[in-house]
Input
Amino acid sequence: MSEKNHVNESILSESILEDQKENRIDHMKYLPGMEQIKSDVMDQVVAAMNGYDYTKYTGKDVRRALAAEDRTPEDFAALLSPAALPYLEEMAQAAKIETRKHFGNSVSMFTPLYIANYCENYCIYCGFNCHNKIHRAQLCEKEIEEEMAAIAKSGLQEILILTGESRQRSTVQYIGEACRIARKYFRVIGVEVYPMNSDEYAYLHECGADYVTVFQETYNSDKYETLHLAGHKRIFPYRINAQERALMGGMRGVGFAALLGLDDFRKDAFATGMHAYLLQRKYPRAEIAFSCPRLRPIINNDRINPMDVHERQLLQVVCAYRLFMPFASITVSTRECPRVRDNLVRIAVTKISAGSKTGVGSHSEEIADEDKGDEQFLISDSRDVDEVYRDLQKLGLQPVMSDYIYV
Amino acid sequence: MDQKKDTFSLGGHEFTSRFILGSGKYSLDLIRACVENAGAQIVTMALRRANEGGLANILDYIPENVTLLPNTSGARNADEAIRIAHLSREISGSSFIKIEIMRDTKYLLPDNYETVRAVDVLAKEGFVVMPYMYPDLNSARDMRDAGAACIMPLGAPIGTNKGLATKEFIKILIREIDLPVIVDAGIGRPSQACEAMEMGAAAVMANTAVATAGNIQMMAEAFKKSIEAGRLAYLSGLGRVREDRADASSPLTGFLRDDEREE
Output
C-alpha cells in the first residue's frame, strides 16, 4: 500500500469539517438501542481524574508509593506524576520484581486479525475513519478461515479479532461467526470491536470469545467530543461502560487503554488505571489487561500534533500500571519498535503481538495479493512469530502461546 | 533414619519425597533439572498450559517417572473445575487433580465453598482429589468427608512469598484432620518450608519461590534439603522452646512434698 494514493478529505475539506461541527450530536446522550446499565463507575472514574492534580506530588510521595506493599490509588497518582520521573530506574526495578512474582518469566504471544475496516465513525486521528478514502474491505467466512489457518501455522494459539467500528457492515452475527471459526484454530480469542450491549457480548462469549478490549482513547469527555465528531463512537458514556457490559455478558477479561498523547496523558493514564481498579473491585473475578498505545504516525495525519509522550513517559505509565495492579496483563503495541518492546517485556509487559498486520486480509498469501483493505496505522515492529519467539528466549523469557482454557 | 520408610500416601500411592514442585513461571527446559535437584516425585501443572500440538507443550518437559498433578487453575466455580478435571484426565492420563477455584484475580484466594462441591463430585468419579484451600477447619472437614485425598491449605496468597501467614490455622488442621496436610502457596524461602514440616505438615508445595530465584536449580535443591530437615526435626520430637524468661524454679508448685508431712 502506498500512502501517496490516499487523500484525507476530512482534513482537507473545511466544509465537511464545518458541517460536522455544526451537526454534532450530544456526545453524552445514549442513542436508541444502546443499553444503559446502572453503574456509577464512569462517574467515579471521571471524578477521580478531575481531582487528579499531578503537580502537587513530590519525591517523598513517590518514595512512599515505591515502598508500599499494596499500592493505593493515591500511590498510583504519585507514580504517574512528573515527580516520579527521576525515580524511573527504581520504578522499573520494582515493576520487574512484581512482574516476575506474578507471571514468572512468561510472556504471552498473540496476533491481531483485522477482518474488516469499514467504519461509521469520524475520529479525526484514525486511518480508518469514515471520511478517509482508503480501500475498504471485509473478509467473508471463507477468507476469515484462510487467514486464521495461515496464522495458526505459525504456532500462535491466541488471536485478537478486530473490525472497524461499523455495526451495519460488521454485524454482531458476523463477528460471532468469526469467533466460531477462530475456535477451530485457536485456544484464546479476544475481540476488539465496537462497544455493544451485554446480551451481544454474551452471544460473542457463547461463540468462543472471552476477552474484550475497548480503547477509551481519552477519558476527558470535552476533548473526546472534539476528536470523535460522528458515529456511535461519539457517545462517551456508552463506550466507557463497555467493559462492564462485557463482564455482565460473561466475558472472563477486559482490556483498557487510553491513546496516550491525544489529551493530557497523565490524567488519561490515571483514569485508565482507576477504571480498571474500580471494575475489578466490583467484579473481582475479572481478568484485567492494559494496552499502552501512544500516538505514532498514521495515514494522512501529519496536520495533527499530539501532545508528546516520549519513551521515558511511556515507560513511566507502564511501570505505574504494573505497580498499581501487579496481577494485570500489560500489552505493548507494534506501534513501538523492537528495541522499546524488548525492553518493556523485561520490565513489566506480559503480552506481545507478533506477525502483526493492521490491514484486512494480510496473512494468507492469496488474499494479500488482492490488496484488500488498507492499514489502520503503520507498525514499527515487523518481526514475525518465530523472530519474536526467539528474541524472547534470548532475553531469558518464556514465550507462552496459551495459558487459558475455555470453560 | 531410613527415609525410604518414611512415606506418605495419596489415594493409595506412596511417596517418599515431601516436596511438590510447581512447573509454572520458569522456562520449560529447566523443569527436568529442577525436578532432579528437588528430588520431587510429584510435579504440578496447569492444564491450561498444556497445549497439545502447539509449540513447546509443557507435557513434553515433565520427566516420565514423576507423578503429574494437573491443576484446575482458571476455574471460577465447581462446575468449571469439574470440566477441567475431566479434560485433564483425558489429556494427561493422570487421575490426580489439584482443585484450584478462584473467583478473584487480585489475590487468587481459593473459594472453599465451591471447592467442597468439586471434591464431592470428583472423588466419587475416582479422582485422587487434592484441594487447594483457605485453612478453615470446617471446610477442611467437609472436604475430608467428601473424599479428598489430602488438604492443601495456603500459607499466604499465591506468589507473595510471605511464608506461613496462616500458621496457627494450619496447625489446627494438622491436629484435627487425619489426612496429609500439604502446605501450598505463599512459601517464599526454604526456612519457611522447614518450619511447615517441623509443624507436622506432610509435604510442602512451592513454585514462585523457586521460579523467581537467581539460580532456579540451586533453589530447588535448597528446598529439598530444608524440607528433609524439617521432617527429621518433626520425627525426632522438637525440644521445648524456652520463653525469654528463665524458669529454673517452680514458684507455684515448689511447696508440694511427696511425704505430705506436716511441719
About this structure: Chain A touches chain B through 30 residues (CB under 8 Å). Residues 3-400 of chain A form a domain with the TIM Barrel fold (CATH 3.20.20.70). Residues 265-282 of chain A form the longest helix (18 residues).
